[in-house]
Design brief:
heterodimer, A: mainly beta, 7-stranded mixed sheet, B: mainly beta, 4-stranded antiparallel sheet, 12 strands, 0% helix, globular
């Protein structure tokens, strides 16, 4: 049973380009969380999705960032017109759902985005 | 709004010595509390979690943490550190009343160095 898969592991973009980060949940997981880790900081919640629905995007920047989790395929975090400040490690975490103590979160290894 | 403070950015201990990593949280209701470990280039791995009940929680790899409501603390301890414990440790709080424990607020982390 493969874990949470994120790709690419490293992504280099020039300012103004688009970045697409992919997250394939563990088998049976239909809930996806995206977190961003800036250098020397803890992880910050960005968005929570269930299949085909955005549940909570309170941590997403208002512009240039979007996320989706289609019925088929991985969840995608898209950053348009990247700027240097977008350079960070982006982690996704997935869960089967449930609530409280029954909800177990599994993290991927992250995508390190570097903007030149 | 909930918040987490990890006052120690770096800690160095000798192998075999005891360890305590501090974590203070701010949350209006009963929190869900977590400790995660992150090795270089890896995602986060859950060490232990507290939801309710016994305030002393046992985790993996010989770690334990104690929830002290009066001090708003959830410190992580290990009686004897191994060189392989060198990593970054994150304390996190989840909103226990939202039906999901996975929208987490993380502290800024404590980097543990172990000397031989």
């Amino acid at each position: 049973n493969a874990g949470v898969m994120q790709n690419p592991r490293h992504l280099v973009r020039r300012r103004g380009q688009e970045a697409r980060l992919r997250c394939s949940p563990m088998k049976g997981h239909s809930h996806v969380y995206w977190y961003r880790q800036l250098p020397e900081e803890g992880l910050k919640f960005m968005v929570y999705l269930q299949k085909e629905n955005i549940i909570d995007e309170s941590g997403m920047p208002k512009e240039r960032f979007s996320a989706e989790f289609p019925k088929e395929g991985p969840s995608i975090l898209r950053i348009q017109q990247v700027v240097r400040g977008d350079s960070a490690a982006y982690f996704c975490a997935t869960t089967q759902g449930g609530s409280g103590p029954n909800e177990k979160l599994f993290f991927g290894s992250g995508t390190q985005l570097s903007v030149l | 709004a909930q918040s987490v403070t990890q006052p120690d950015i770096h800690i160095t201990v000798s192998e075999g010595a005891s360890l305590e990593l501090r974590c203070n949280y701010s949350y209006g209701a009963t929190p869900y509390l977590f400790w995660y470990v992150q090795s270089p280039g890896q995602g986060l791995q859950l060490l232990l979690k507290y939801f309710s009940g016994d305030t002393l929680v046992q985790g993996i790899k010989g770690f334990e943490a104690e929830f002290k409501r009066s001090q708003s603390s959830f410190n992580l301890r290990k009686p004897s550190v191994h060189w392989s414990d060198a990593a970054e440790y994150f304390c996190a709080v989840g909103a226990g009343n939202t039906g999901t424990a996975s929208k987490l607020t993380f502290g800024t982390g404590t980097r543990l160095q172990v000397t031989l």
